[in-house]
């Protein structure tokens, strides 16, 4: 059942066996997995079908220092479906090396093994509509090229690993009918949790304070799962202070909000290959109709040898608007997105200020677009034809005949306790302190990008595969510029780190908050490390694993409290049997 709008009487209390705060891929995947239990589940969605300006305001926060991180509302959405409303669809699992404690990467290592999570990837991929759990191009596409560029692969860099692309799945719409028609699921729209209440004993959440419209109610459950994203998860824990938890829940060792990670991405350097026909450049379609694409991957041997993190690369268009080799379509996208973002501001003063701040880039890209209309118009019609013919690619690739093909990279952001989410003294309209993000990097983050470029360009040049445009001395400044004006691309990882030791983490291997008996965290905030992979498939896999854990331990709290003393023996027998 979906409850879209409802006014509650003062003092209203809602009961359930399980309460899930959030409605993104993690929350919906968990709910889908728990349906067979036939226990009451309440889902508190922080929005409705579309994002309202009022709900968007609740995602705002601050960066420290100012402008060092994109606006916190930019890559997050308070809607039913959560992050899946913004998701691009790239699907790939973490690598086995990501789970290991690597001596050269401080704070690395998961308390679970790759094998423990791998069994959940097939079901995760099904929910994400991304096909089979096979990411090895040689077996998915037998008989095709073994490499992206023949002869380039070696023991340091290989190109058979690939990524799969979801349509992308909008979880709220895809699974709406199942959830809406299930009598055990109650989804409350525009339900904002403002506090986790600990009132009777320090290891137990007694209730949640929830604001729905003008109503303030409480929700009581046997188990609570917080699944609101890598920024909101620590924000809610830190804001829920009490006499039992003066520094916030789970924060007895000052770990909540620390180890904030994302990925460093960009395009730097390009190639002009001699033989364009030999390049395996476009997307490939597997037998299920799933778009797949290969990329170069730094092998575990190279990572250990060079003492760097995980990284991938592939040939792409330039994604840097200040790059000397512009693309008319890219300029058009930049002009449209920037202008639309500025015009969304409510205040005329902010609109004028926004155009002033973006003036130079807007002017240059608009001028370049007008100057190259004869190139842009055919590209626009080509893109329109693909959309009409249902041949739209997951992301826009340049023509293989483009003068320069750029090297895109996506690398691991090393876990760093100084990279963190804290709280401001400023509160939102519901009285919850607004988050402050301070993102931090280490020299190892930079060295990983250097290693990836060195391996690729030295190999390309050694084999005389064509011309290159790459200056190593400019790469460091390029990376520093990206760090100074960082954009998370919606990957918010690590802020409630998983560790079996309360001294070094917030949740244990089952995602239960240390020191609490009935509070769990779902989502990428529990990642101890992030690898190079986009997180969605692993978020869903971990959510399914948590659901299995809850199936073994959940007792119907509502029914239990209604039992008379003489009914207890029969109830215990039934619980044990189930």
Brief summary of the model shown:
With 578 residues, this protein is α/β, with parallel strands linked by helices.
Using only C-alpha atoms, the radius of gyration works out to: 25 Å
Q: What percent of residues adopt helix (DSSP H or I)?
A: 25-40%
How much strand content do the residues show? 15-25%
Report how far the terminal alpha carbons are from each other.
Answer: 25 Å
Strand runs, count: 21
Overall geometry comes to: globular
Mean pLDDT: 89
Q: Regions with pLDDT < 50 over 5+ consecutive residues?
A: 321-326, 385-391, 555-561, 571-578
Instruction: Decide which structural class fits the backbone.
Output: alpha/beta
What is the number of helices? 18
**Largest sheet, described in full?**
8 strands, mixed
Strand-helix topology:
Elements: E1 2-3, E2 13-21, H1 25-34, E3 41-44, H2 53-57, E4 62-63, E5 90-91, H3 114-118, H4 121-127, H5 137-140, E6 157-158, E7 162-165, H6 171-174, H7 176-181, E8 185-188, E9 191-197, E10 207-212, E11 215-226, H8 232-239, E12 263-273, E13 284-285, E14 291-294, E15 296-298, H9 300-306, E16 311-316, H10 328-343, H11 348-357, H12 359-371, H13 373-388, E17 405-412, E18 420-427, E19 433-438, H14 443-462, E20 466-469, H15 472-484, E21 519-521, H16 536-553, H17 557-562, H18 568-577
Parallel strand pairs: 1-8, 2-3, 2-11, 3-8, 4-19, 11-21
Antiparallel strand pairs: 5-7, 6-15, 7-14, 9-10, 10-11, 12-17, 12-20, 13-14, 15-16, 16-17, 18-19
């Amino acid at each position: 059942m979906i409850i879209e709008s409802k006014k509650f009487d003062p003092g209203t209390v809602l009961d359930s066996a399980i309460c899930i705060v959030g409605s993104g891929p993690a929350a919906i995947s968990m709910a889908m997995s728990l349906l067979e239990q036939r226990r009451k589940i309440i889902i508190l969605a922080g929005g409705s079908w579309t994002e309202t300006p009022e709900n968007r305001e609740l995602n705002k926060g601050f960066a420290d220092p100012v402008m060092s991180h994109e606006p916190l509302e930019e890559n997050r959405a308070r809607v039913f479906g959560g992050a899946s409303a913004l998701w691009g669809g790239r699907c790939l699992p973490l690598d086995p090396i990501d789970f290991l404690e690597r001596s050269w990467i401080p704070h690395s290592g998961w308390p679970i093994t790759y094998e423990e999570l791998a069994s959940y990837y097939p079901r995760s991929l099904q929910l994400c509509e991304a096909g089979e759990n096979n990411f090895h191009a040689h077996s998915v596409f037998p008989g095709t090229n073994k490499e992206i560029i023949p002869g380039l692969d070696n023991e340091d860099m290989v190109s058979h690993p690939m990524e799969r692309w979801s349509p992308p799945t909008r979880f709220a719409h895809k699974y709406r009918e199942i959830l809406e028609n299930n009598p055990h699921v109650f989804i409350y729209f525009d339900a904002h949790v403002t506090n986790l209440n600990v009132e009777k004993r320090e290891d137990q959440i007694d209730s949640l304070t929830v604001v729905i419209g003008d109503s303030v109610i409480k929700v009581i459950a046997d188990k609570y799962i917080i699944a609101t994203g890598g920024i909101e998860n620590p924000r809610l824990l830190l804001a829920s202070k009490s006499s039992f938890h003066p520094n916030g829940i789970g924060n007895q060792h000052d770990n909540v909000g620390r180890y904030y990670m994302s990925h460093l991405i960009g395009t730097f350097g390009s190639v002009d290959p001699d033989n364009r026909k030999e390049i395996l450049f476009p997307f490939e379609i597997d037998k299920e109709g799933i778009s797949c694409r290969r990329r170069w991957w730094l092998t575990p041997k190279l990572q250990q040898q060079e003492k760097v993190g995980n990284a991938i690369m592939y040939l792409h268009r330039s994604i840097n608007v200040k790059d000397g080799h512009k693309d008319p379509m890219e300029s058009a996208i930049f002009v449209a997105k920037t202008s639309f973002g500025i015009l969304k501001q409510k205040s005329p003063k902010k609109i004028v200020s926004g155009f002033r701040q973006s003036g130079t880039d807007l002017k240059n890209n608009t001028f370049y677009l007008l100057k190259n209309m004869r190139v842009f118009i055919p590209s626009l019609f080509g893109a329109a034809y693909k959309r009409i013919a249902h041949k739209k690619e997951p992301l826009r690739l340049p023509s293989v005949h483009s003068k320069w093909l750029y090297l895109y990279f996506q690398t691991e952001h090393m876990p760093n306790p100084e990279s963190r989410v804290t709280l401001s003294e400023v509160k939102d309209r519901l009285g919850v302190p607004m988050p402050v993000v301070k993102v931090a990097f280490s020299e190892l983050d930079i060295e990983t990008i250097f290693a990836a470029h060195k391996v690729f360009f030295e190999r390309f040049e050694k084999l005389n595969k064509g011309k290159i445009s790459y200056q190593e001395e400019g790469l460091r400044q390029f990376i520093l510029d990206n760090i100074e004006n960082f954009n998370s691309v919606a990957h918010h990882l690590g802020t409630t780190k998983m560790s079996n030791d309360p001294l070094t983490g917030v949740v244990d291997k089952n995602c239960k908050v240390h020191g609490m008996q009935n509070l769990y965290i779902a989502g990428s905030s529990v990642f101890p490390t992030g690898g190079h992979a986009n997180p969605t498939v692993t978020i869903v896999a971990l959510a399914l694993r948590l659901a299995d854990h809850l199936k073994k331990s959940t007792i119907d709290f509502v029914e239990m409290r209604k039992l008379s003393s003489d009914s207890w023996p029969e109830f215990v027998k039934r619980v044990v049997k189930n």
